[in-house]
Amino acid sequence: MTENPTVILSTHGATRADVVAVARRDARIEIAPEALAEVASVRAHIENLAHAETPVYGISTGFGALATRHIPTDQRVQLQKSLVRSHAAGSGDPVEREVVRALMFLRAKTLASGRTGVRPVVLETMVGLLNAGITPIVREYGSLGCSGDLAPLSHCALVLMGEGEATDRDGVQRPVPELFAEAGLTPVTLEEKEGLALINGTDGMLGQLILAIEDLEELLTTADITAAMSVEALLGTDQVFRPELHLPLRPHPGQAASASNMFRVLADSPIVASHREGDTRVQDAYSLRCSPQVAGGARDTVAHAALVAERELAASIDNPVVLPDGTVTSNGNFHGAPVAYVLDFLSVVSADVASIAERRTDRLLDPARSHGLPPFLADDPGVDSGLMIAQYTQAALVSENKRLAVPASVDSIPSSAMQEDHVSLGWHAARKLRTSVDNLRRVLAIELVASARGLDLRSPLTPGPATGAVLAALRERVAGPGPDRFLSPDLLAAEQLVAEGVVRARAESATGPLDGSLPAA
């Protein structure tokens, strides 16, 4: 990825990599000429329908439960303004900038498909906002995940009109007209069909799904590394991770990948070699021995979620939608169920990967199970508490993730005078997944700190090349064993190492590339 990547917006959709580049790396967007031509062609057809005598939903009628009212031509601009203003009814704290950029780009992707009937200027202005770093303020609550992410998208559409709330590239909230003028943009006066086209999509939940997949791909490989460090520090065996015990016997690709990662990370470890003979234990505990089965199941779940995301990326969601033959027809494609289900599914696996990591950490701290390590990995147990409360923090994060694993998509609440009587709550599933992923990162960071201290305390034995490289990276920011000190900064530094990809990069400096990739978008 270049420093300033460019994403081309065409009629053929986008990739997960495109979404991440725009959301997180401020990639510049260019609209393909053929996309603008297609948008203009379809718009001409919509304008013909708008001036016909026969009412067409979304073009010359009201919306939702008010769809039976025919709107005169001279009131239709006001209709579009009213739609967006009334639907921008979110509440709560602003959501993250990257989420708003992802949903805006995904809506622009759908506008570029030519299936929504907007004018080219609407698409061009949406892209102009993204390229200028202008980010609408979208509130936490407001989407039910059906009829699309209505309130979040409406907050974005309101800014497109030159109204509402927004921040500049530096995250500073400023008047929207001022931001437009500075960027050389002109607010859009929405015409027939354009209000609905801007707000009827699953873009908020889909954007958050794609960002979560990106994060989990990194975290699951990191989980294999921290698990291997715990196995090493606890004098566990690496033999249960041999390739012949996985894919040939149980053909789950994620399990095989995780086992391979752990086996390679533990390769050539003097600590592991030190107890290959004379060790009376028959088997390691499940939290060590079954780590590939848990993390591998999570990998396969993320791969399924990626497949759903790619299908949704290929979609052109609007209601009504303009078919290739020019027919404008109502549909239910804005229902977020397919996306909501996998968002919930990922919350389940995020919780379980965190849970097994916490069990390994607890084992490291317990002298009855740690095979010679001091209680709580403390310097002077009794005077010092070591990592006792770090494990409490880990346990609190795991408990929170278990609560977040309760699915949102099995709930529903009727709205719009019972017209919208079943909703997906996919936005809610996405919001809790973001918290769950953040918590998983923190849990793995605490395991990293604990397992690293365990490895230090095995001295004069030394860890293997891969785990030793990770240990050295941690010691550049976090001191080794010693008397008790303020622990919170250590845990934050470890979390930053995980978030920056340093843990994986240092391990791979010894192992070569580890298997953490998902199917290409």
UniProtKB/TrEMBL annotation:
Entries under Pfam families matching the protein: Lyase_aromatic (PF00221)
Presence of the UniProt keyword Cell division in the record: no
This protein's pathway: Amino-acid degradation; L-histidine degradation into L-glutamate; N-formimidoyl-L-glutamate from L-histidine: step 1/3
Keywords: Histidine metabolism, Lyase
UniProt-listed InterPro entries: Aromatic_Lyase, Fumarase/histidase_N, HutH, L-Aspartase-like, Phe/His_NH3-lyase_AS
Broad EC category: lyase
NCBIfam families hit by this protein: hutH, PRK09367.1
Protein name: Histidine ammonia-lyase
Source organism per UniProt: Zhihengliuella alba
